Amino acid sequence: MIIASNLKTNLTRSQTTSYMMDVENFLEKNTLSQEILVFPAQSSLSAHSGQVTQGAQNAYATTNGAFTGEIGTEQLEEFGIKTILIGHSERRHILGESQESLVTKFNFYKNLGFKIVYCVGEPLDVREQTDEVMMKYLDLQYEGIDTSYENLIIAYEPVWAIGTGLTPSLEDISKIHLKLKEKSTAPLLYGGSVKVDTAKDILACEGVDGVLVGSGALAVENFCKMITFAEEAGK
Ligand code: PGA
After folding, report:
1. Is the CB of 199 under 6 A from ligand 1?
2. CB of 6 closer than 8 Å to CB of 213
């Protein structure tokens, strides 16, 4: 399975370095076969070698140039980063990234062979409508995305569940995942308020190939416990 930690705008560079080291030490002591991804804040990216894959939470579709506040592949290459998160709901809804700009970004990084964790998810007002309306909303987030890209991972993250402590029922998670799996055979992660005490059940759900965790993974020991749960799930 794939266990990913999205550190968002948290932890300094030195805190991130010790976070990565703690995960590496944990993996060294325990023989585990899970794929582990960590997405540090941009200013906390650094050279890293080990079992943990470091990814970028965002980057612009460029090598370099005049894009104030953005980074491009020149900055990612410095640290050997070949993994990127695209379409996170905070980028869609807070930072206003459109589907069109996400597709441009997706294609740019796909052409470079990056591993792409592409996020989809519906806001509460959509969730409260029929399943059909919700699936139509999610369909639009797949528009323009090459769902058969070999280095693609998809994360289903309901917007209303992110950072709120709310999660869909386990039945709903399975139901939606199985529906989304009809669109792509890429590994499908669940994200949105996954906590150390809910991760085990979520990882066991049919159609769930891993989790993308924000606040619940900020304490490294909790993130490591989730890795153990994934191993125990034996998928
Ligand atoms: P959360 O964030 O676990 O804090 O809800 C998940 C995410 O945004 O990826």
Report:
1. no
2. yes
Report which of 216, 218, 212 is spatially closest to residue 119, judged by C-alpha positions. Answer: 212
User: At residue 179, does pLDDT exceed 90?
Assistant: yes
Q: How would you class 85 by CB atoms within 10 Å of its CB: exposed for 0-12, middle for 13-18, buried for 19 or more? A: buried
Residues with catalytic annotation? 88, 157
CATH superfamily of 2-233: Aldolase class I (3.20.20.70)
**Band of residue 31 on the pLDDT scale cut at 50, 70, 90:** confident
Distance CA 75, CA 41 (A): 13
Q: What is the SS3 string spanning 19-39?
A: HHHHHHHHHHHCCCCCEEEEE
Q: pLDDT band for position 235 (50/70/90)?
A: confident
Nearby residues of 35 by Cβ (< 8 Å), 6 or more positions away:
1, 2, 3, 53, 210
Distance 228 CA to ligand 1 centre (A): 19
Per-residue pLDDT averaged across 194-221, rounded?
97
Q: What is the 3-state secondary structure (H, E, C) of 175-192?
A: HHHHHHCCCCCCCEEEEC
**Which pLDDT does position 234 carry in this prediction?**
86
Substitution candidate for ligand 1 out of 167, 215, 218, 226 with most atoms within 8 A of CB: 215
- With beta carbons less than 8 A apart as the criterion, state whether 16 and 44 touch: yes
Q: How far apart are CA 195 and CA 180, in angstroms?
A: 23
In the chain, what are the domain boundaries?
A: 2-233
